[in-house]
Amino acid sequence: MFKVPDMSDYVFSPPAIQAIPIVGSDKLFPVNRIFCVGRNYEAHAKEMGAEIDREAPFYFTKSAASISMAEGSISYAKRTQNYHYEMEMVLAIGTAGLNVDIADAESLIFGCAAGLDMTRRDLQNDAKKLGRPWDTGKDVEQSAVITPIKPIAEVPSIAKARIHLAQNGETKQESDLALMVWSAAEIIADLSSLYHLQPGDLIYTGTPAGVGPVERGDTLVGGVEGVADFTVSFT
User: Fold this and answer.
1) Cβ 83 vs Cβ 120: under 8 Å
2) CB neighbour list of residue 197: distance below 8 Å, 6 or more residues apart
3) Where do the structural domains in the chain lie, given as residue ranges?
4) What pLDDT is stored for residue 156 in this prediction?
5) CA angle at 127 for the pair 36 and 191, rounded to the nearest 5°
6) How many other C-beta atoms can be found within 10 angstroms of the C-beta atom of residue 201?
7) In what order do the strands lie in the sheet with 219-224?
8) Tens digits of residue pLDDT in 26-62
């Protein structure tokens, strides 16, 4: 007969649940999986030397252990000389869904956040040249930077809003969610044809043009209009 395990059944303590504060609540949002959309702004795709295939969004993943709150200082990643910021809007899924219609997709959203998809660009570029996975370039400790989640009912728009990032006071990324190649609803509908989306899933929706490297001591100030703003530094 199945026995519900207690702590004494494990050879060591299970990893702590990664959870994100919710704006206006004392509750926490437990993180399940992290999906990231690649090349979701045409100008960014071009700066990376790629062309947009409007019919085929693609994704990569990060582990929940990569979560880091967008506050204070963040450690510069190991084994990279080219650590890049990528400013993004993040969708937090609150309702399960499989093969969801685009018209119903937004009903799965619990809330939104602003975030950074930090990337070891040198390792990612090496992997691309060799036709290898991007894991060591993308799934990096403290690389899924995120603000507290704002409930969707309090978010003015996920279709049109300013998204921006400045580095040491100089604007680097400035765009609008309206310029995403695939909308939030299209992304959710497509992902739900690949995975049974679950409460706790996060979707980083892609970055505008202007990505670039950070150095230790740099300060990044970014945000998504109506969602969140943040300031972080790198050590």
Assistant:
1) yes
2) 93, 96, 97, 98, 100, 108, 188, 191
3) 19-234
4) 98
5) 25
6) 23
7) 73-74, 228-234, 219-224, 162-167, 170-176
8) 999 999 999 999 989 987 767 767 676 677 789 999 9
50 sits in the region (left: phi over 0; alpha: psi -120 to 50; else beta) called beta
Residues 6 or more apart whose CB falls under 8 angstroms from that of 23 comprise 111, 148, 149, 150, 151, 154, 228
What pLDDT is recorded for position 42?
82
CA-nearest of 185, 158, 181, 162 to 173 is 162
Residue 217, Cβ density class (10 Å: 0-12 exposed, 13-18 middle, ≥19 buried): exposed
Fold of the domain spanning 19-234: Fumarylacetoacetate hydrolase; domain 2 (3.90.850)
What does the alpha-carbon distance between residue 156 and residue 175 come to, in Å, rounded to a whole number? 17
Average pLDDT over residues 73-102: 98
E strands within the chain? Answer: 19-21, 28-30, 34-37, 59-62, 67-69, 73-74, 83-85, 87-93, 109-117, 119-120, 144-146, 150-151, 162-167, 170-176, 202-204, 212-213, 219-224, 228-234
Backbone angles phi, psi at 49, to 5 degrees: 80, 25
Task: Report whether 70 contacts 180 (CB < 8 A).
Answer: no
What tokens were used for 234?
A: 């790198």
Model pTM greater than 0.85?
Answer: yes
